[in-house]
Specification:
2 copies of one chain form a homodimer.
Chain A lengths: L5 H14 L7 H8 L3 H17 L4 E5 L5 E5 L4 H15 L5 E2 L3 E2 L8 H15 L6 E5 L4 H11 L3 E4 L10 E7 L6 E7 L8 E9 L3 H12 L3 E11 L11 E9 L5 E6 L6
Chain lengths: 273, 273
């Protein structure tokens, strides 16, 4: 390949760094790839750092030390997060989404890549400092958001199931009480999915009473893993308090039951801090 | 903001285009964003096009016509796809992964963002020309790969469930026969998830007899939707043929049952075409 110019390096550098979120690349890696001196590469990195900041496209960090280098973290400003979540709240408040029993149809929102990517970036931004080793979710509807959060954090996703099957190997089962429905269900996770001492970030689509979230924290205790945070797409206004504490929802939902149920969905308070 | 230089534009342009795969951006969009003339923007686009091609980082297409503009498509060369899939096959052939009954533990592979992203890009690359309107999967294990495929294609993901619940609204249920286990199961999908005439790409983690895949095609017929392709992470060597045709697996798995089961996993033949 011919010697490449800074214009070209900037494009390739941007693509490579942003495609592997939260992964540390050494400067040498790029020097080898582009056939460039370290000083030149450092200048490229500085330019990219400023551009990402100025256009609010994420953050480039320089990590010092033996395992040092540069790392891209997807981030979103509070203002942009509020704008997107407010837009989603308005969409969710369409009366056509209200289902019999006061339930809300949000399946489509929860599996549209651009929406779940934004939600994943917003959630990840709250937990980079906690350095979770993996994201934990309970099947099924939270999986896309949880995956995008894990992608932004650069960690694996771990999915708890209602039942273990023969594809999981030996598994840990726990029973948990669904706080709202009040009955006992089973949650299962493969023995090899989590190592003792690891840190878990719980991400799920919905929290009402918090029974499932409580179940996931109990499950992590069985693995001697630590829960460093909990985030949800939607939290119901009632009951309050939940069976878990410190949860971070993106939206708050309130339904007034009755002859014609009234629905309100709004961005969570912390987005306005 | 100060007038920005080409170096800086290249970085921002790359991030914005690659973060929204398969979405068409007008040239004017970027002219407004950067305060640049169309001719300059065109040059930027041409530079980016070449860089992405030279470094095998994806493809930038110029789309002509009234709704024209530029669009980034994640792609992977056959050689790189073979390299990644071969590496995953080797990982899967670790004897520790063989479970009782000749099953294979691949849950971790199927939910590690970087792996499923690569698989999604490889699968999407085979189906851009078919222009699917959505990706369809059956819960649970195929969801991450299916989501990343949908992300690369810039379309929503649709998830069929074993049972409908009150969050789905009215739903279509079909019964299907699991070809391998030979019993009847139910597959369910919300009425509002798919519109008549839409095109579906089926993506799932595993195909053995093809009963579930056949069920998904039957389900799409109920919605008057057309199945334009089927892709799977792993296909078993036997039985052959499957209950569906034209499926595209990434890997082929063969297990010899017996006192000590022998496992072989290799990249699918089409990766060597």
């Amino acid at each position: 390949m011919d010697r490449i110019r800074r214009n070209e390096r900037m494009a390739a550098l941007t693509k490579i760094l942003t495609a592997s979120p939260n992964r540390i690349f050494t400067l040498s890696h790029f020097c080898d790839l582009f056939g460039t001196a370290k000083s030149t590469m450092s200048e490229d990195i500085d330019i990219l750092k400023d551009v990402l900041t100025n256009f609010e496209l994420g953050r480039l960090d320089t990590v010092t030390g033996a395992a040092g280098g540069v790392r891209f973290r997807p981030t979103m400003s509070k203002a942009e997060a509020r704008r997107i979540i407010t837009m989603l709240c308005e969409e969710l408040m369409q009366s056509s989404r209200l289902l019999p029993g006061g339930f809300l149809y949000l399946t489509d929102i929860l599996s549209t890549p651009s929406f779940v990517r934004s939600m994943g970036v917003i959630i990840a931004g709250q937990f980079y400092d906690h350095a979770p080793d993996f994201v934990l979710t309970m099947e099924t509807k939270g999986i896309p958001v949880a995956l995008m959060t894990a992608d932004a954090l650069g960690v694996p996703l771990v999915i708890a199931r209602h039942m273990s099957n023969m594809f999981e190997g030996s598994a840990v089962h726990i029973n948990y009480e669904t706080a709202s429905a009040g009955h006992i269900e089973t949650m299962s996770l493969s023995r090899r999915a989590v190592q003792p001492g690891q840190k878990a970030l719980i991400v799920d689509d919905f929290i009402k009473g918090g029974g499932t979230a409580k179940g996931m924290t109990d499950l992590m205790r069985e693995f001697n893993a630590e829960v460093v945070g909990m985030a949800f797409v939607v939290s119901t206004a009632t009951p309050k308090p939940k069976r878990v504490q410190g949860e971070k929802p993106l939206m708050l939902m309130d339904v007034t039951h009755g002859d014609s149920p009234m629905l309100s969905v709004k961005p969570a308070d912390w987005l306005f801090d």
